Amino acid sequence: MFEWLKTLERDLTKKPNNPHYLGGNDQPFPQNPLFRSQPVLDEDARELIWRRVKKNGEALKVVSADLGVDVRRVAAVVRLKEVEKRWISEGKRLAKPYSKAILNMLPKTSYPASGPKPTHEPINDIHVHGYTMQQVFLPTSESRHFTRRDAAKAFHRTMLPAEERSQHPELIEMVKDVLAGGNRARSAEKFIKAAKQSEQELVRQAEENARREAARTMKINSDRFEFRIQSFDSERVGTTGRARHAVGWRYGAPLDDRKRGKVKIPTQVP
């Protein structure tokens, strides 16, 4: 486990050690050379992920870091495997021939029983925040140590730095500890413990939010439906009447440019 700890000093921008990532059968449709498929996890890899999470009790972030699979994909694989195994226990038929045919057409990532594991995909990509899609000119002193936190505050006062918006903050701290000369085995143990605590805290918060939501919801069962009624303050509609939590917000509201008599061309130059 954690064979990749031995190569932390290498360039992080190096291409993943996956023979299917840029090569292999990445053109599943011979008559469509413009479509190039990214690798997918084969059945053995999905079973391995499910077994490590459900049977061994490992944290999602630990499995994600060890196998090189995005933590959201790890969670999705576990959920789908749970559905699959429940259907098998209920005697439902699965579309195995269709799944096998599709997998034979696509490049796959598989994990050997021993040896180094390939990287399926980048696991620490950060979503491009809307605040960063603007040009910002911030004068600063040349002697000042300008950090990622300062850069985030330059875009917006509430924006978090990149390491705090990452899906693997515990992994970042572990890498920093190793690069600073810390013991790798001890750093790995701290990472596993921190990832487990983070996952338990997320579960606790989700359960607390569900209990809070159930406490303020009145349920009325009928023959066909379950009506869920909640109290709502009619004054919480915002200054324009289109607040995010207002009644009817999710169904949208017509734009002013579709109203009759509205001027749709600029009348002045600011």
UniProtKB/TrEMBL annotation:
It holds the Pfam family Bot1p. One of its GO terms (biological process) is mitochondrial translation. Keywords: Coiled coil. GO terms for molecular function: structural constituent of ribosome. Residues 188-216 form a coiled coil. GO terms for cellular component: mitochondrial small ribosomal subunit. PANTHER family: 37S RIBOSOMAL PROTEIN S35, MITOCHONDRIAL (PTHR28158), SMALL RIBOSOMAL SUBUNIT PROTEIN MS45 (PTHR28158:SF1). This is 37S ribosomal protein S35, mitochondrial. The lineage of its organism: Eukaryota, Fungi, Dikarya, Ascomycota, Pezizomycotina.
